[in-house]
Amino acid sequence: MLEQRYRWKNRHLRMHVSILDGKESPTILLKNALYLNQTFRQWMRANIWIYEDRIVYVGKNLPAHIGNCEIIDCTDEILVPGYIEPHAHPFNLYNPHTLAAYASQFGTTTLINDNMPMLLNLTKKEAFSLLKDLRSIPTTMFWWSRFDSQTELLNEDEIFSHSNIKSWLEHDAVLQGGELTGWPKLLDGDDMMLHWIQETKRMRKKIEGHFPGASEKTLAKMMLLGADSDHESMTGEEVYNRLMQGYMVSLRYSSIRPDLPELLDDLKRLGIQAYDRLMLNTDGSSSTFYEQGITDQMIRIAIEKGVPIIDAYNMATINIARYYGIDHLHGNIATGRVANINFLSGIEDPTPVSVLAKGKWVKHRGENTNAYGSINWGEYGLKPMELDWELSMDDLQFSMPFGIKMENSVITKPYSIAIDVSGDELATNYDECFFTLIDRNGKWRINTLLKGFATNLPALASSFSSTGDIILIGKSKPDLLHAFNRMKELGGGIVMTEGGETICELGLPLGGAMTDLRMEELMNQEKELLEKLQERGYAFSDPLHSLLFFSSTHLPYIRITQQGMYDVMNKTVLFPSIMR
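RE: above sequence
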């Protein structure tokens, strides 16, 4: 673990110094570069020497020894630091490796990632082995440690045990605790969560909040209990309130909440002109949302909305690095930093022409260098699902008095069931579907109706969910069986069937949660899935987040969880899950 804290060993440091003494050659020399100097808040000219993954000098001088050096004339290019994504959920069908490789093409060379799926699906040994091996890719990967499952698990105390959380917090790749989706429990007196927050602060690491709609008083309370930042502002007034209470505020532009343009308009309306306590994030968007860019797209929006250009870049680089205490390595172009550099064709065009990540060309003159290789996911326990049980018509019995109604992609409310659900098919002149959550190990299930998801969807089966359990949605019980069996054959995935035929499928061979496809291939499959669902009456924008959040109790009002139908506001299991 010390390799993360002490990036370079003594012999490396001596080598770096010897380059300045003219005894060794840098590996890359960037001559006469116009670069963003964030100390002076100016665009300045300099020569930048790089040795392997480190910037060893920035200034007017040229190296005395250039025997093994790639020399690049940067007179006509603009250099900025590699961008940092401070709030990534790298398991949204894509995986951490494919997201990193794709993001690098748009200049995002550092990701700070959610660890939830690893807590739920991998052993600690498997997870830490994956973290270690991901250090070898050009992208820099940091992580955060969750304190709660944001659902109602049957074995939550085992997964979120003190020893597990403590091990994650002590890991050098972990920069923060949170996000605090379980903050109501904290306010209600959960001392174990408060202890973990205290431990995080003792280690000089950050606590990220998750406080949608929180009042000024609640924000103040959470700051007193240890929160440092929040990414849930939906209006300029909410940004203002967080800044007033001392928060670092992350402005969001995501597939669920593309708020950034409106937030920037609101900041201008409110007269907020200080940007040092602001950063940018995309909050785990769907792959198709990233088609036009990632962090670079947010910087472009900020520039178009009148944010001073240097501040626009700083919100994606040095502001984040300073907040997390990693600015000695990341977020700026200066002596001693990791060589993450974006080469731009113009100051107002943040999408890079070339990208250096850890001193390696991941994009060169517009071309992807394919620097990321491949990963054997099976070594970390991420293999195709092996379901050794059968789904039967007996599992598809629906008799609950109320169901779940969708208000939008992710918000669900209870409603009284007033239709006949005794048959094997539901009519298409109303928008109810059969809805089942079933244990991936076949031990329990819960059946209800889902209103508002689709009008004429025969069947969808998905192993993609927040807990890794299996979701079944549709109007035809025979098709639900067919979709489940096809998903089982794939080893996990999302499958739609109609009339006993598969009409769309997206395989998820990495534990039933992720694909190993390149992002561009995933985008095509994701578009097809959305198109097929919309043809069958899906009226919202993001079916993947619908599937992901059906069990998420950090959102109102009613959820379907491992423990059963759950009333979020009253923190009560209304109907328990049924053992099979």
